[in-house]
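I'm stuck. Protein, please.
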Amino acid sequence: MDHGHRKPLTASGQSSKTRFQYNDEDDAIAEVATESSNMEDSTMCEAGDDKTSADYYFDSYSHFGIHEEMLKDAVRTKTYQNVIYKNAFLFKNKVVLDVGAGTGILSLFCAKVGAKHVYAVECSSMADMAQQIVRQNGFSSVITILKGKIEEIDLPVAQVDVIISEWMGYFLLYENMLNTVLYARDKWLVQGGIVLPDEASLYLTAIEDAEYKEEKIEFWDNVYGFDMSCIRKQSMSEPLVDTVEQNQIVTNCQLLKTMDISNMHSGDVSFTAPFKLLANRNDYIHALVAYFDVSFTKCHKLMGFSTGPRSRATHWKQTVLYLEDVLSICQGEAVVGTLTVSPNKKNPRDVDIALKYSLDGQHCQVSRTQLYRMR
C-alpha cells in the first residue's frame, strides 16, 4: 500500500481488464495531498451559531485546497472533459443543471460546447469564486451560478435537459450527495432528459496487508509499554482510504451493486449485497477492499473510469475494511458473506457498513460480523 497517503476518515469484482479508457493529453500531474479540516474564514449556507453536520460538510468545500486536489485528479477531470467535448450533441442548445458545481469546471466545459444555458448550483462559499471564474472566462451570459442547497433553491426554469454532477464520495456513497442528484432529477429533469454519469458500480475484493495492519491496528495493544487496546476497537471500525497495490490482491473482484442513476430511488442507496471472494493463491487476508466504477452510457461510445487497484490512481483511492481475524486461505477456497450499506441515521452524510463474512477452509474456519462507520 501507499502508506504515505493513508487517510482515516474522521471529521473532516472489477474484472481483470479495465473497461474504460480516456485520453490523457497532459503530462502526469503530481498528486496533491490536501487536508481541509482547519477552516477558519469560510462562510456557510444558512450557518448560524449552531452549525449542523451538513454545515461542516459544506464548509469543507469552501476551501480551495479540496478543489485543487479534485481538479488535479486527471482521471476524474479529463474523463468529464472528454465526455462533454466528444459528445457535444448531448449539450448543444440544451439547458444544463450542474449539481454541486464547485469551481464551475463542468459548467465551463458544457458552455464551451454550445449549451444553451447552464445553471451551476453550489452551496459553499466557493460559489462566489465560481462567479468570478465564469466572468473572467467570458461565460456570464451562458452560466448562472446559484448559491444554495439544491433542496432549497428556485431555478429560473421549470425543466432542464441535462443534469451533470461529480457526486461520488469515498466508498462511492460517503457524503450522500447522490440523493441530492436524485432530488434534482425528480424535480427538474425533462422527460427523456439525461443524467451524467448515469451508472455507478461498487466492487469488493480481499488483500494481504500484514505490515500495515500491524502498524495501524495492533499498535494500540502496547504503546510505550502501556495497554491502549480500547482505542483499537475504534480504529478497526473506521474504514481507511488508501491506495492498494495490485500484488496485495488475493481474490477475485466481486460486483456488489450497480446503481442506475436515471431510474433508481433515493432508498436504493441502502442495500445488502452477497459476495463470494475466491482465493487465487495461498495467502493471508487481512482486509476487504471496496472501490467503484462510473459509466457514461449515453455517449457515442461507452466512457467512464474505475477507481480500482488495477487502474490509474485517483483521489478516491480505495476503501480498506480491516478484519478482526487474519484469514489463512488456500487457492480455490472462498470467503463468503454479505455487505450491508446505509446512511447513518444521525448524520446521513456518514455511511454505516455491516460486514458478515465466513471462511470454511483447510487451515482456517471463522464466521464473524463487523460494523464500520465512515465519518
